[in-house]
Amino acid sequence: xxxxxxxxxxxxxxxxxxxxxxxxxxxxxxxxxxxxxxxxxxxxxxxxxxxxxxxxxxxxxxxxxxxxxxxxxxxxxxxxxxxxxxxxxxxxxxxxxxxxxxxxxxxxxxxxxxxxxxxxxxxxxxxxxxxxxxxxxxxxxxxxxxxxxxxxxxxxxxxxxxx
Length: 163
Hints:
Nuclear Transport Factor 2, Chain: A; six-stranded antiparallel sheet; single chain; 6 strands; 2 domains
């Protein structure tokens, strides 16, 4: 009798532990909705304000660049315009990210100086578009944005200089 009671008891315990009210379709929709919401938040953080740039006058910089005797690549040109360097003894979380991509005959370089030790400005983003004419780089346009430590209306990047 003990041998037949044990399997019956196990089946009873397992059956009691399962919940027949669980709707697997509902679980999938909740997890899908959660993933979608997380992706939307990431997108808004990464791309917030990508269309809201301040145009920077580049005429004087192109003249300065034309007079420069050394050969520079597009990343070096943007660093020449914005010569930010993080000191070795800096204990803040500031960082400088420099990236570039080629689109046809144009090169687009982006510099993001983030977590700056500034009272109101947290970050500065520059996007420079260059092309090569007669074996010399020429800046076609330069745009900039700022990120404030105190954000207005949850806007992360904008033309507001955090005043």
